[in-house]
Amino acid sequence: MTMKSVAQASATVDDTHSRQTRKRIVHRRAWGSWIFAGVVLGLLVAIVDAAVSAHVVDASVFANYLFSRKILEGAGNSLLLGTVALFAAGAVGLIAALMRVSGNPVLATLSSVYVYLFRGTPMLIQLIFWFNAFPLMFPQLHVAIPFTDHVLIDGPMTEVVTPWIAALIGLSLAEGAYMAEIIRAGLRAVDTGQRDAACALGMRRGQILYRVVIPQAARIILPAAGNQYILLLKSTSLASAIGYLELLRVTTDIYSANFRVVELLCVAGFWYLVMTAFATALQMLLERLYPHR
Amino acid sequence: MNVPNSLPACAVDLVGVTKFRGTQAVLRQVSARIPQGQVVALLGPSGAGKSTLLRCVNHLEPIDDGQIFVEGELIAYRERNDICFEMSDRDVSRQRQRIGMVFQSFNLFRHMKVLDNVMSGPRYVMGQSRSQAEHTARALLERVGLSEKAGAYPHQLSGGQQQRVAIARALAMSPRVMLLDEPTSALDPELAQEVIAVIRQLASENITMLIATHEMRLARDFADRVLFMVGGELVEDAPARRFFDDPQHARSKQFVSRHSHAA
Q1: For the domain that residue A282 is a member of, what is the CATH number?
Q2: Is A191 near chain B, with CB under 8 Å?
Q3: N or C of chain A: less Cβ packing under 10 Å?
Q4: For residue A213, what is the nearest residue in chain B, using CA coordinates?
Q5: B interface mutation test: which of A195, A201, A221 has the most B CBs within 10 A?
């Protein structure tokens, strides 16, 4: 190409540019969603307006109870129960998941029956079972070291199975069934090549699990487990049915005496939101520390 | 203690190795004696049982008949009264330490940095201290030309780099025998070249190597010997030069002519 023709070509491009920049471009507006947004906002304003004019919440009562000692204790108990139950459920779930993938037909069947039973019945029924039905079935608890005279525990079951124990066992076993499925999915998602490589290096079965499979499965399990933690923190409210003094039980005890139902439920709701925010933050932190690759 | 059944000079001794998947035999009576330092290419169409044979040598897969000896020691079984009883996980793991393996899909530990991958064997299997293992690992990374990638994660590397790290990881255990299962098949020709260069270097260092491969260049350039397999059977066992110049078996002739046309 000669110099002259290059100059001509660029002149043509310039012309095209100057012609195009004069035109204004208007994109399509999604009118439908804006109209719907307006309707929803209108409804919301109407509800808030109705609530304010009816004086549904007494803000001073809400503020008084928000940091009251009993409420804080109840929230603390909820957080403790949910957290301890999560770790117990994680341990139960890991064992159940390993049984399921062990290749042994008896262990695998036992594991899937456990998951079916404990995932298939309402948590509330399980809690009531551990607190009320279990002590009826086995009224006396006697634990001794076999072939010796050492007795570890001996007493009526009702004394051993306190609301705290029943709630912990109930939530851990019910949640363990969900965790078993989550952990199993995580273990299966680890490429078999990773196990082959660890095996070929001479790692033993336990080492392969601990050094290679679990660290990788954990990155898949973590987000789902965080979700379960949030569910579990809210599920601790079920323990109110068996008299464990967690947040909801404390709240209902107070409002059944003073009839400030709305304010106290708002207080309980507030603390559940705080707990959930805490769990979400923890989950995000862990996911950042152990990113999935 | 097992009494060595074969000559000490023999690095790998395959005796009538047979394996079934269901009712189908994937390895039929494969026998070969591989002396110390020999580089052996396993060739054959896909499904011939090349990979399976390699995976049997370090007992990633159990065999159904026959015996495998590495440096005279019966692999994964203990013979008592003419019956071979499978060893414990502990004992097989100990035997695997002397047998390095490299995989088609690299299989680097994804959650570990390159350096940790290379140190994983010495640290977790041989129980070395971190500083001790790090010294060897850095030297090995230098040797495969990847010193500057020590702090990277596997997913940040190209396939060729990952495979070179995988070779370094296997070498960190100072293996007596290396098993390479299609080491370049997942790589484009350019990246395969850098891996082949590393393998060529190893071949000159008197490590016994068994390489299952499609890459004719790998076999032609530096294999001492070719085992040609079809349908789980060892069809031809010949020095590499003779296999390519004058294949004996009809299937070998067909295979060699087809692949030399392609190359």
Answers
A1: 1.10.3720.10
A2: yes
A3: N
A4: B109
A5: A201
- Please report residues of B whose CB lies closer than 8 A to that of A200: 58, 60, 96, 99-101, 170, 179
Same domain, A277 and A133: yes
**pLDDT tens-place string over residues B39-57:** 999 999 888 999 999 999 9
Helix, strand and coil content of chain B, in percent to the nearest 5, comes to 40, 25, 35
Domain that holds residue A218: 62-289
DSSP codes joined into one string, B132-174: HHHHHHHHHHHHTT-GGGTTS-GGGS-HHHHHHHHHHHHHTT-
How many separate domains does chain A show?
2
Interface mutation vs chain A, best among B54, B108, B110, most A CBs within 10 Å: B110
Q: What is the C-alpha separation between B212 and B99, in angstroms, rounded?
A: 15
Please state the ipTM of this predicted complex.
Answer: 0.91
- Write out chain B residues lying below 8 Å of A212, CB-based: 109
Instruction: Tell me which residue in A193, A201, A215 faces B105 most closely, judged by beta carbons.
Output: A193
Give the pTM: 0.81
The band of A1, judged by pLDDT with boundaries at 50, 70 and 90, is very low
Residues of B in contact with A201 (CB under 8 A): 96-97, 120-121, 124-125, 169-170, 173
Contact A257, A232 (CB under 8 A): no
Same domain as A274, residue A178: yes
Nearest CA in chain B to A217: B111
Q: Name the residue among B94, B109, B153 with its Cβ closest to that of A202.
A: B94
Could A201 and B58 be called an inter-chain contact, meaning their C-beta atoms sit closer than 8 Å?
no
Q: A130, A66, A33, A26: which is closest to A266 by C-alpha? A: A66
Residue A193 DSSP SS3: helix
Residues A130 and A188 in one domain: yes
Nearest CA in chain B to A219: B111
Do A47 and A150 sit in the same domain of this protein? Answer: no
Domain boundary among A28, A53, A78: A53
Which residues of chain A neighbour B140 with C-beta distances below 8 Å? Answer: none
User: What are the φ and ψ backbone dihedral angles of A76, each rounded to 5 degrees?
Assistant: -60, -45
B11, B36 in Cβ contact below 8 A?
yes
The pLDDT tens digits of the residues spanning A211-232 come to 999 999 998 899 899 999 999 9
A67 and A45 both lie in a single domain: no
Are both A49 and A176 inside the same structural domain? no
